[in-house]
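Incident log, support desk, overnight shift.

02:14 A customer reports that sequence design results differ from what the structure should imply. Their input is reproduced verbatim below. On-call engineer (initials T.W.) acknowledged and began investigating.
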């Protein structure tokens, strides 16, 4: 009935984003340890975003790559401004955030990663004005593909991902004794991976080889391999429900669990 009973799972998402994953894991019997390795902060400047929002109607496509970007868009856009012409969301969580603010999503790629989004839009953006709202520091895969497809692209930073310094002591404590070490580390983005290992280095701790790394998808897995670790678990699709299913499947199918 509780396939994750007795399993300690480390959830690393930003504090305000951790509840869906944590709740799902706890429902299956897991003990969830929350240590955020990403803090969402303001970009160095909102100038590009505010300028784009002031003339939103000139863009043929508006692209959101996270729910965080949607939140900032809603907070800073002029209430009387007309809605965007067409909107793309990178995945269902972002689409849900868009729908919550009363807007319609026209396109969601089949896989919830930048590469799939770029493929889905390649034939639709030639000669079109495209506004991409995203984190200040992000991969160049999507912008490069859109420009190559002929888009007139504007990139506007909505937020930054930073490593929260207060999590260093939490990581030190977590890996200070065998009884405290988690069975699983749930990784939900490449940024989560990079920030975890930055925290680990700052804390001066070592992650034991017994820890199972569970990745939400291939991009996250690639980031983990760059750090010298292999994912034991990878979700079929880049979503929280699929990640939870993959973790559950790992333990229910593993002999002796």
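02:41 Re-run completed on a clean worker. Output:
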């Amino acid at each position: 009935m509780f396939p994750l009973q007795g399993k300690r799972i480390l959830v690393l998402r930003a504090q305000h984003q951790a509840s869906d994953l944590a709740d799902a894991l706890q429902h299956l019997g897991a003990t969830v340890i929350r240590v955020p390795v990403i803090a969402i902060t303001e970009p160095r400047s909102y100038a590009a975003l505010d300028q784009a929002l002031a003339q939103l109607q000139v863009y043929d496509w508006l692209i959101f790559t996270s729910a965080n970007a949607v939140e900032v868009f809603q907070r800073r856009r002029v209430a009387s401004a007309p809605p965007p012409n067409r909107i793309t969301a990178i995945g269902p969580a972002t689409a849900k955030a868009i729908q919550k603010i009363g807007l319609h999503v026209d396109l969601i790629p089949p896989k919830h990663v930048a590469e799939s989004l770029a493929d889905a839009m390649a034939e639709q953006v030639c000669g079109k004005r495209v506004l991409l709202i995203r984190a200040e520091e992000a991969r160049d895969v999507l912008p490069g593909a859109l420009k190559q497809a002929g888009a007139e692209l504007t990139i506007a930073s909505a937020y930054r991902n930073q490593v929260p310094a207060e999590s260093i002591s939490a990581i030190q404590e977590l890996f200070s004794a065998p009884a405290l070490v988690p069975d699983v580390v749930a990784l939900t983005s490449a940024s989560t991976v990079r920030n975890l290992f930055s925290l680990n280095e700052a804390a001066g701790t070592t992650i034991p080889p017994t820890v199972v790394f569970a990745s939400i998808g291939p991009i996250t897995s690639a980031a983990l391999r760059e750090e010298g670790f292999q994912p034991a678990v990878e979700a079929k699709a880049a979503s929280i429900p699929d990640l939870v299913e993959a973790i559950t499947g790992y333990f229910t199918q593993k002999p002796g669990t």
